[in-house]
Amino acid sequence: MSEHVVVIGAVALGPKAACRFKRLRQDAKVTLIDRDDVFSYGGCGIPYFVSGDVSEASALRATAFHMVRDEPFFKDIKGVEVLSSTEATKIDRDKKQVHITNLKTGDKSVLDYDQLVIGTGATPRKLNLPGENLENVYYVGNMHDAEKIKQGITQGKFSKAVVVGAGFIGLEMADAFSDMWGIETTVVEIFDQILPRMVSPVLAKMGQNHMQEQGVEFKLGQTVTRIEGDGKVERVVTPDGTIEADIVIISAGVLPNDKLARECGLDCSERGGILVDETMRTSDPDIFSGGDCVIIKNAVDDSPFYLPMGSMANRQGRVIGSNLAGRNEAFPAAAGSFVVKLFEKSIAGTGLSLASAKQAGFDAVSVMLIMADRAHFYPVRDMMILEMTVDKSTRRVLGLQGYASSGDAMVGRINAVAGMMKFKPTIEDVSNLEVAYSPPFSSAMDVLNAIANMADNALAGMNYGHGPDVFAKYWADRECGDYCFLDVREHADAEPFLEKYPEYWHNIPQGEIPARFKELPKDKKIVLVCNTGGRSYEAQVMLHGLGFDEVLNTQGGMAVIKAWGVDI
């Protein structure tokens, strides 16, 4: 009798594992189970379906050849049997059976398996708020929610939206509501920044500022205490007041669906999630698992890592499919690479931010650089802001995050470093990283090489200073007399600030410092500013050589100061 592989869960990981195994073992039988009647779809595309960028819901279920991934598709094209609207209720490991219930008829039955895959995904985290069950309160957990939201929007039912949570989905939904449909949108986040734990407060503030320019309001450092309305949502209540709303999206993260695995005795994390080895095997050698329900390894510090992302699930699914067929493939540790579109801008990253690195026990520092995404002389270019986190003692690159336009340039740089993270790269590895060069695409010294060189200089004590957040504190305290703000750009660039702040703003172009340094006070901290931080770094080196001890470079210069939102 041919081998029977049963796969529980048919959104991302399950179909990939099933189809990969079937390609390798045409003689085997594969059964794919899902409790929903809509399965095998790109869940990460839901915000773009809501926005209208993806016009039809069926597009999220279609292949690149425009074939909808439904039951007949899997049976006729892939040779895989799909049992939709079917819930797996129990796994009997001793008998190697899965107990299932048809959710439409109530019929119960048992499937025998030789090998089993658990791809049960995750469930949106419920906040258990009063009013959470009112009409038009959604978690965006499946295609059914997405279609209801889109239908309400196109019918003109929604004019004011509240999004609870400023993570990936929350920000993408805020973008979708405000950009395409002009819905008045407010984001409420319990942390004091967007994308908490993912990026530094500086990059987060830049992204927030851009979204605010597009009309999105933010209530940071706040919680929702209840949702009110008569049958359907009308308002959201926070400790600071009430926000009117006719639709609410709760995006407070997800929890791994590990109930089946726990009940059958598989090893699971105390904090949630199924434990697997590098081959994606569970503690039972005949059961594999992957996707949003598992715990893997962090490539930076080797800690347990929960990373619910569709890209991870698809790659893990292929590894599982291969290993079901007898191969011995491994899924590497992950660095947590991401990118999120925020209107015309985007934020991306890989590895750890500075705060996350310190929390993980590293003696870490970060540097920030703004630079053109291609040759400075090429007529079409955009500015890219990168922040690199490094470990002082080992010189390891622990993470790289960035803020730039929503094109591909920054994502390409992030991806280049993401591919290196499992090898624990050093500053030198990125400083000398070979990248494809041509002026329409990059600089001769690419921005990646440049920020690694900047980190090298910082660890050598040659480029030290602060970002725009610290500059803002210095500027707010300018009347105390402790600081000398020195603009090292040419006079024409500095003139507006000299006229506006004659008592505090000073100007010596960087090339004139050797002849004019005696004009500067030695009893004050000299805060250097230029357009991007490059000339001010040169000025810092000069002044240090001339005997000035407290000279601080504003990394990223006026460009970053403006993006962060310093009122100057």
Q: What CATH first level of the largest domain would be assigned?
A: Alpha Beta
Q: Under CATH, the topology of the largest domain is which? A: FAD/NAD(P)-binding domain
In CATH, what is the homologous superfamily of the largest domain? FAD/NAD(P)-binding domain
Q: Kindly name the structural category.
A: alpha/beta
Strand proportion, as a percent range, falls in: 25-35%
Give the distance, in angstroms, between the N- and C-terminal Cα atoms: 77 Å
Count every beta strand, where a strand is a DSSP E run of 2 or more residues.
31
For the report, how would you describe the main beta sheet?
Answer: 5 strands, parallel
Widest sheet: strand ordering: 3-2-1-7-19
Low-confidence stretches: none
List its salient traits.
alpha/beta, FAD/NAD(P)-binding domain, 568 residues, five-stranded parallel beta sheet, 4 domains
Question: What does this molecule look like?
Answer:
With 568 residues, this protein is α/β, with parallel strands linked by helices. The protein has four domains: 4-121 and 255-324, FAD/NAD(P)-binding domain, CATH 3.50.50.60; 137-252, 3-Layer(bba) Sandwich (FAD/NAD(P)-binding domain), CATH 3.50.50; 338-459, FAD/NAD(P)-binding domain; 465-564, Oxidized Rhodanese, domain 1. Helix content is 29%, strand content 25%. The protein is built from 17 helices and 31 strands. The protein has a five-stranded parallel beta sheet with strand order 3-2-1-7-19. Strands 9-16-10-11-12 form a five-stranded parallel beta sheet, covered by helices on one side. The longest helix is centred in the middle third of the chain and has 15 residues, at 310-324. The chain is globular.
